[in-house]
Specification:
- The complex is a heterodimer of chains A (240) and B (243).
- Chain A is an alpha/beta fold and 240 residues long.
- Chain A folds into 2 domains: 146 residues, P-loop containing nucleotide triphosphate hydrolases (Rossmann fold, 3-Layer(aba) Sandwich); 70 residues, no CATH class.
- Chain A is 37% helix and 25% strand.
- Chain A is built from 9 helices and 10 strands.
- In chain A, a hairpin with a 2-residue loop joins β1 and β2.
- The longest helix of chain A has 15 residues.
- The two termini of chain A are 32 Å apart.
- Chain B has one domain.
- Chain B has 243 residues and is mainly alpha-helical.
- Classes of the chains: A alpha/beta (240), B mainly alpha (243).
- Bound molecules: adenosine-5'-diphosphate (ADP) and magnesium ion.
- The site of adenosine-5'-diphosphate (ADP) has 11 residues of chain A, from β2 and α1.
Chain lengths: 240, 243
C-alpha cells in the first residue's frame, strides 16, 4: 500500500471534523474523496500530508509514518492544497525552481525536469508572469506542476478542478488519468461527474465519517449518482 | 542547512520582487541619515565619529523592523502558502530560521547602504574606525533582536496591523527598559526587577558594544534573545498552523 490512512481523527475544539477515517490507496488507483462542504475532506488531507497533527490515528506514505518520519513521508508525496496556494510575487519559473531546490533535485536535472512538467500542465507561455496575475486555471496548473515535479509515488490533490472552466477541467482530468498507472492518487471533489470521469474508487464522507467505500460503478448502479450521494450523505436510508 | 539557504533565498528574492523593499530601504536611509544630519546636526558637532548616527538606530528600527516582520508569517497564512511550506520535506526549524535569516540579511543590506556616511567621516576627519565597525556589528545584532521579536508576533496573528503595533510596542519595552528616565520612575520596584530590566535593555547592550570593545556578554545577549524568540516562533507556528 502506498498510502494508508489509519483511524484519523481531528477535533477542532468541540467539533469533531474527522472521525476515525481509514482507507488505503495502492499504485494504479485513483481515489475520489467525495463529500459535501465541511465533510472533513481537506482536514483529512492536511493530516495525511503532515500539515495538521491528528488528534488520533496516523497515516503512512510509502511505508513512512507521517508522525514519526515526516520528512521521509513528505518526500514521497506530491500535494496540491485547496486553492493551489503559491507565492504571488514569484513567477512560475522561479516558483518551480524553488520547489526543485527544496525537493533536492540535482542542479543538472532541474531545467529538463521543469520543462517536462511545464509541458504536461501547459503553462509554457506564462512562465515569466507573476503568479498573482495568472487566471485561476493557470494558477491551479502551476500548483499541479509543483505537486508532480518530483514525480511522487503518492499524489494528493484537494479539489484540483474547483473553479475551472469545462475545458480546463477536461485537461486536468486527462492529466490525472495519464499519471494514474504509476502513482497512487487521491483527489477530493464535490463534483460527482468527476468521480465517474477519473476515479477507480470512491469514498464518500460526511460529518467526518466514511459512509461509502467502493467503485464508481457500485455507486451509479444504485441510481442517478446525485441521488445516491444525497441519500448517503444525508443519512436518508428510506430510499436505499 | 541547504534547505535553510533555499528558504532564505526565496524569501529575500520575494522582498526585492515588490516595491516594498525599495521603499523600505529609501525610508530607512532618509531617516537614518536625515535624523543624523538635521536633528543631531552631524556637521556642526565637528567630531569625526558616527555616534550621532548610531544613536538613532534603536528608534529607527522601532518603526522599520516591525514593518519588515509584520508580513513574515502573516502573509504565508493569508496566501495559504504556509500549507505548502509545511508539507514540503523540510523541518519547521529550517523554515523559521530561513525566513528569519532572510529578514536579517535584508536589514544587513540596509546597513551596508549607509556606508557612504562612514566614508564621509573619514574624508572629513580621522575617526576611530574600530569603534565604527563595532557599532555596525552592534546595530546589526540589535536589528536581529528586533526582527526575532517581530517574527514571533507575526507568527501569532494573521492581522498585519496588529502585528506591526504589537511588535513595535514589545521592542519599545526592550528599548525603554534601560533608559535612565524610565528607570527613575520605576525605582520603587525591587532591585532584582530593576537589575533584570536593565540587563534586558537594548540600549545598554548596544551602547556597550558602541564603545568599541566588543564584550562577549552583549553579543551573547542579542544572540540568545534571537534564539529564544525563534524557538517560541516555531512553537507558536506548530500550535497555530490550522488557524
Ligand atoms: N482550522 C479550523 N478550525 C476550526 N474548524 C475547522 C478548521 N478547519 C476546518 N474546520 C471545520 O472542520 C469541518 C471540516 O472542514 P473541511 O475539512 O475543510 O471540509 P471539506 O474540505 O470537506 O469541505 C468544517 O466544519 C470546518 O468548519
Ligand atoms: Mg475542502
Amino acid at each position: 500500500m502506498m498510502l494508508q490512512i489509519q483511524n484519523l481523527t481531528k477535533d477542532f475544539g468541540s467539533l469533531r471534523a474527522v472521525d476515525g477515517v481509514s482507507f488505503s490507496v495502492d499504485k494504479g488507483e485513483v481515489l475520489g474523496f467525495l463529500g459535501p462542504n465541511g465533510a472533513g475532506k481537506s482536514t483529512t488531507m492536511k493530516m495525511a500530508t503532515g500539515f495538521l497533527s491528528p488528534t488520533s490515528g496516523t497515516a503512512s506514505i510509502c511505508g513512512h509514518d507521517i508522525l514519526n518520519a515526516p520528512l521521509a513521508a513528505k518526500r514521497c508525496i506530491g500535494y496540491l492544497p485547496e486553492g493551489a496556494p503559491a507565492y504571488p510575487d514569484m513567477t512560475p519559473e522561479s516558483f518551480l525552481h524553488f520547489i526543485a531546490d527544496i525537493r533536492g533535485i540535482a542542479r543538472g536535472d532541474r531545467d529538463a525536469l521543469i520543462a517536462e512538467v511545464v509541458r504536461k500542465v501547459h503553462i509554457e507561455h506564462v512562465m515569466h508572469q507573476r503568479i498573482e496575475t495568472l487566471s485561476k486555471g493557470y494558477k491551479r496548473r502551476v500548483g499541479l506542476a509543483q505537486a508532480i515535479l518530483h514525480d511522487p509515488q503518492v499524489l494528493v490533490m484537494d479539489e484540483p478542478t474547483d473553479g475551472l472552466d469545462p475545458n480546463q477541467k477536461h485537461e486536468v482530468r486527462k492529466l490525472i488519468r495519464s499519471m494514474a498507472k504509476e502513482k497512487a492518487i487521491v483527489l477530493s471533489t464535490h463534483i460527482l461527474e468527476e468521480v465517474e470521469a477519473v476515479c477507480t474508487r470512491a469514498i464518500i464522507i460526511a460529518r467526518g465519517r466514511v459512509l461509502f467505500d467502493g467503485t464508481p460503478e457500485q455507486l451509479t448502479s444504485q441510481g442517478p449518482i446525485d441521488e445516491v450521494f444525497r441519500r448517503i450523505t444525508t443519512g436518508d436510508r428510506t430510499a436505499a | 542547512m541547504r534547505n535553510i539557504v533555499s528558504i532564505a533565498k526565496r524569501e529575500l528574492g520575494g522582498y526585492f520582487s515588490t516595491p516594498v523593499a525599495y521603499v523600505f530601504l529609501i525610508v530607512y536611509l532618509l531617516l537614518a541619515n536625515g535624523l543624523t544630519l538635521f536633528i543631531t546636526r552631524f556637521y556642526e558637532r565637528e567630531q569625526a565619529d558616527l555616534l550621532a548616527f548610531f544613536t538613532w538606530h534603536p528608534w529607527v528600527y522601532l518603526f522599520l523592523v516591525p514593518a519588515v516582520t509584520m508580513r513574515l508569517w502573516a502573509e504565508e497564512r493569508r496566501q495559504g502558502t504556509i500549507e505548502l511550506l509545511f508539507t514540503l520535506p523540510i523541518t519547521l526549524a529550517e523554515s523559521v530560521v530561513g525566513k528569519f535569516l532572510a529578514a536579517w540579511a535584508f536589514t544587513g543590506i540596509a546597513l551596508l547602504l549607509t556606508i557612504p556616511i562612514w566614508i564621509t567621516v573619514n574624508v572629513l576627519g580621522k575617526p576611530d574606525n574600530g569603534v565604527i565597525l563595532s557599532s555596525y556589528v552592534g546595530s546589526f545584532l540589535m536589528a536581529g533582536a528586533y526582527l526575532a521579536i517581530g517574527s514571533v508576533v507575526s507568527s501569532s496573528t494573521k492581522n498585519q496591523v496588529i502585528a506591526f503595533v504589537v511588535s513595535a510596542v514589545l521592542c519599545l519595552v526592550f528599548v525603554l527598559a534601560g533608559l535612565p528616565g524610565v528607570m527613575d520612575v520605576l525605582d520603587w520596584m525591587p532591585n532584582v526587577v530593576l537589575e533584570t530590566l536593565r540587563s534586558f535593555s537594548f540600549l545598554a547592550h548596544f551602547e556597550s558594544i558602541q564603545t568599541g570593545v566588543i564584550d562577549l556578554r552583549d553579543i551573547t545577549f542579542f544572540l540568545s534573545l534571537i534564539a529564544t524568540c525563534l524557538v517560541v516562533n516555531a512553537i507558536v507556528l506548530d500550535m497555530k498552523k490550522a488557524s
